[in-house]
Design brief:
The chain contains one helix and no strands. It has 32 residues and is mainly alpha-helical.
Amino acid sequence: METLSLKNMLDEIFAGLLSFTEDAGADCASVQ
């Protein structure tokens, strides 16, 4: 059970970082 919740938490964190980097990349592209 702990490994499942840990994996889900890591997946959510990774998804959040991915969306954050995509947003930052879009902002940089719009600036340039």
